[in-house]
Design brief:
The chain is α+β, with helices and mostly antiparallel strands and 212 residues long. The protein has two domains: 139 residues, Methane Monooxygenase Hydroxylase, Chain G, domain 1, CATH 1.20.58.1030; 57 residues, Ribosomal Protein L9, domain 1 (3-Layer(aba) Sandwich). The protein is built from seven helices and seven strands, in the order ββααααααββββαβ. The longest helix has 30 residues. It is flat and about 70 Å long.
Length: 212
């Protein structure tokens, strides 16, 4: 098994470090209301390492090989759960994400396979709605489908629990009410908060914030 792998920034990381990065991405994806940036290259790194370990263990039958196999199962669960979480979001927000895709606002947020799934899933839903609903109602009422699209938009105002990994100064915290009032706060390293998601998104992407 190789001791290091290379991430998207050309920085060599050990396998435990790569797994930690994937675990962080998994936790963030589980708790974020939006589809976060794709970690496709990180996923590929983990897949390659898993394959290398499995090949290495074929002729091993000692206690160490049993421990390694348990680690592989943990990695496989983590990887599958991360990918399933993203696919579930694509299904739930298909019309919103497709509109973002057409507007070229999904760059970096979706992998090639997820792109294909989104297009295919939306097409299947539209065909089903046409057969089951649209063709049975008057033409002038078919715009009701627009309300379905609006309903799938992610809620950026949702409050989420976060842990601060790097001190962030003068963070604008949006009011949960429909007002323009903003509160400026400093988020100290090591602290935990319950904040509106839209207020911490930039910190999530630059590594200053982690979801809980």
């Amino acid at each position: 098994m190789s001791n290091v792998v290379e991430d998207v920034e050309e920085v060599e990381l050990s396998l435990p470090e790569v797994i930690h990065k994937l675990e962080t991405a998994w936790i963030n994806e589980l708790n974020a209301p939006v589809l976060l940036r794709s970690e496709a290259e990180l996923v590929d790194c983990v897949k390659l390492e898993m394959k290398a370990v499995v090949e290495q263990l074929r002729n091993w039958h000692d206690l160490n090989s049993i421990i390694k196999r348990v680690e592989i199962e943990r990695m496989r669960y983590l990887l599958c759960s991360y990918l399933r979480t993203r696919l579930k979001k694509i299904e739930d927000q298909a019309f919103y994400l497709y509109a973002e895709l057409e507007a070229n606002r999904l760059s970096g947020h979706i992998s090639r396979e997820e792109h294909e799934f989104l297009v295919s899933y939306r097409e299947s839903v539209m065909k089903h709605m046409d057969v089951a609903i649209y063709r049975h109602i008057p033409q002038n009422l078919r715009a009701v489908g627009d309300s379905f699209k609006i309903a799938t938009r992610p809620n950026l105002k949702r409050f989420v629990f976060v842990r601060v990994l790097k001190t962030m100064n003068e963070v604008e915290i949006a009011s949960p009410a429909e007002t323009m009032r903003m509160e400026i706060v400093d988020l100290q390293i090591g602290t935990q908060h319950l904040l509106p998601f839209r207020s911490i998104l930039s910190g999530l992407y630059d590594g200053s914030i982690q979801m809980m």
